[in-house]
Amino acid sequence: MRRAPYIFSLTLTALLVSGVTGAQPAETAKANPPAVVQNTPAPKANVAARDPFFWLGEINKATAVINTDAGLLEPAMGARLAAGVARVIEDGNQPGAKRPSTVITFEPLLIKAAGQDITLLHAGRSSQDMHATYRSAILRDKLLELADQLIITATTLVDLAAEHADTVVPNYTNGVAAQPNSYGHYLLGHAAALDRDAQRIREAYARIDRSPMGTTVLNGTSWPLDRERMAKYLGFTALVDNAYDASQISSMDQPVEVGAIVTSIALHTGNFIEDVMTQYAQSRPWILLQEGGGNTYVSSAMPQKRNPGLLNNTRSDASTAVTLAMGPVWQTHNITPGMSDPKDVKQNAAMVDSAIAVLKRWDRVMKALVVNRERALEELNSDWTASQEVADVLMRQYKLPFRVGHHVASEIVDYARANNVLPLDFPYDQARRIYAEAVKGTDYPAELPMSEAEFRATLDPVAIVKNRRTVGGPQPEEMQRMLKEAKARLADQAGWIQSRRAHIDQSLAQLDSDFAKLAANAPSH
After folding, report:
1. Alpha-helical segments (H) within 172-218
2. Residue range 173-223, pLDDT digits in tens
3. What is the pTM of this model?
4. Contact at 8 Å (CB) between 497 and 144?
5. Separation in Å, CA 274 to CA 267, 278, 313
6. Are 494 and 151 in contact (CB under 8 A)?
7. Quick one: which of 358, 504, 351 has its CA closest to 35?
8. Which residues lie below 8 Å from residue 28, measured CB to CB, with a gap of 6+?
9. CA-angle at 317, arms to 316 and 318, nearest 5°
């Protein structure tokens, strides 16, 4: 049975077309970015999107210039063929014009413009390497779009971390309140995750930014094609070295690798959203969305409810992104090398666009968050999230083994919960009693070595956060260091994006210039 990938492809396509997600009472408009479709109209006159038609045009322009300079085409013939290529591109850039996305549908336009002679450009080329080339070029552009939005979202995250560097809140492990922490420190943890996603984009980009052109089908050609010059004209920084790998394996790997990046971004988003969602189950949350503007919506039946529509929509978008990211995996599974299943430009562009949409929603969530510092501190002081500090102080200051101190702290918490006593109200005498019983019969000091003032200070969540000494902890000095470094990494990432775009633009500009000179020598009609 080999039908499963085909069935999945149909399902995936239906999902792309319908934009299916969960119900969205607060905001019905979903992100449906335009995808590259065969024979789609040009956006406007003389401004061509970098779609398959655009790249097929660039490949033909570069072929005409390179093969003429190499003597594979007579200069007069090269100029005449260049004029034909220019005519096809100009026609395709007109409003409402068709923009074929395959070699087989593009070539008839060339023949119509310049006659059968124009198929001389086909020397040593195949739809295999030409399609692999434009797929890489389009995916390369999409990765830069994703990197752009990742910077925007990560910048919001880092800025919010700076704003809340000294906001002390509960943090949770295993779904239970665990320890006090700086909310800014928590946010920088999420920013670190997005920085790894940015690294993944750069690493994947380097592998995608390689030109397959000139490898023909799978073993090259007898024509002495200049692959290096072709790569430079098209803005690639390297070649796919092995001709078989170029269109048979590498072009299948690329969408799978990008899908892994999309998955990572979606999972990071979902983790953050679910943490906020947990607060909405409480009667008195310490973090909420600012009401209005489509962030929340009221229940049709229950007047007290303010449903977090923005959070629901962001979570739903993240789930959709994961779904689309799995598409290339399933479509590459159990097929022979080179099959077209995972290479669809429309589906792979939509997959990346789904991650961009998720990051946009996450950015909006962070800008809508309202953190109630007093309520967060109240929650900390209503539970025993500071209890580990008792064990730490007994070990750090008074050389008690941690497990002994941990037992003392655990007994204190048990007594407090049994008697409904809050940390700030815990009787010092009871702490002394519990300690004495815990160390009875040992060589450890019989009396609790902590004074009452020290005992009280040990349970202060704000003091705990400020007094951390771990590299990478939430203490003010480390927060300032990590904020500075996070901002520097964002600046570096922005510089990398700018340099990659500049390289592509300069390469294409050079091709335009050299092609124009060649086409200018064509005989007038």
Report:
1. 183-208
2. 888 888 899 999 999 999 999 999 999 999 999 999 999 999 999 999 999
3. 0.86
4. yes
5. 10, 6, 12
6. yes
7. 351
8. none
9. 90
